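Entry 14. Ran structure prediction on the chain below.
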Amino acid sequence: MNDPKMKRRNFLQTIGLGSACISAPGILYPAGATSDQKLNIIFILVDDLGWSDLGCYGADLHETPNIDRLARQSMKFTDAYAASPVCTPTRASIMTGKHPARLHMTVWRENSLDPPRDRQLIPPVTQNNLPHDQFTIAEALKQAGYFTAHVGKWHLGGAEHYPETQGFDVNIGGTLWGAPYSFFHPYSGWRTPDEFRYVPHLEFGQPGEYLTDRLTDEAIRILNRVHDRPFFLHLAYHTVHTPIEGKPELVRYYKNKIQPGMNHQNAGFAAMVHSLDENVGRILSKIEELGVAENTVIFFFSDNGGYINRYRDDPAPVTSNHPLRSGKGSLYEGGIRAPLMIRWPGVTTAGSICRQPVCSTDFYPTILSMANAEGDAVHNADLDGVNLTPLLRNAEAQWDRDVLCWHYPHYYFYPATTPVSAIRKGNWKLLEHFEDNRLELFDLENDLGEKNDLAETMPDKANELQDQLIAWRVNVNAQLPSPNQ
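Output, structure tokens:
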């Protein structure tokens, strides 16, 4: 439970940055459900899956028939964003409904522990563990009578901050590490002379067993045991993060499929996407088999944009976020815009498309509303997320929030980024770079690829957005980098 003396949020109503918390009067029941029948919730979180890595989002190499089918059954979002361009902060935002800048969790855990100190700016000292005084989505749902299970990647703290300490009844595979040593059994090995990585609770595997398959096996075992009671399954696949290791037969298949001019050129990555798709299909089939599909909400999301650098000696970039600019680690669209689909039987219209900008902070209040869970009043008073249920009922519903902000006061691997903040208001997007105080202004409606910087030709608009961005940073007590003197 939170410290009752926690400071409550000072709303910035004058610039439209207020928090809408949990505004729905109660749960919206799917067709056939009754007031005593709680919704089940499955949240599928993929690691480093880019906005255009799925067939339903325009991929030209990858084959994703199961996820495409899920999209046809769901509401698909075109302008969904991760709260950060890297993993740990976005995952913290999902767990808490709060912006990484507010949590002071703005970079992945390993970098937080050992930030670079040889660059022009020194990153701030940040949290490397999700604090226990934050009331997580799992704690809120457990309080409401749900069985809560985490399977896969955690990356939100050391052992004393593992999922079991944050409201999950079961944790399979969740550790402090951001990536496995290998995607093939036994999933373990010496990453450095001082670091041995492993994925716990996956004992007794067989040679050739694949991590994405095994995590799904474990998720299905959980579903088999708990499907007769309300459950929350947080299925956080390690794929498609490095190491880039697809099943050999699939890698061969995609090597033969690659054609000149395709945006996607990496057969190993395509094979990983293929296995992801197969396993999403297995989850969909299992809930149908168990007879709970019509009472189960499914979220499908990625924690940030696709990784566009090369991996080891492969000449092809890991992926492409075309038509978006840049990728993971950047506050250009390629680093933060992510695929999102939500299937809520009886509420979302199959095949509907929502073009409103939404963010990973929004999942917390949305899920609490779906589950008719109260959560913690002090925690809820400080949320940054907005309840999406009005949009899920009607993609054209009036949407009062038109501002989203990001803050990444860190460095990422070339060519992604130096320390930067960003704001999107309507279709206008501003980036503020801290090394040289440079501003970039883009019109996303006419320039989705962020190729035409309008900051010099539209200084009034740039300054207006910068003022709002600065005010937001003050409001959330965002940390700034300092000069390296």
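The two ends are 41 Å apart (CA to CA). Will compare against last week's run tomorrow.
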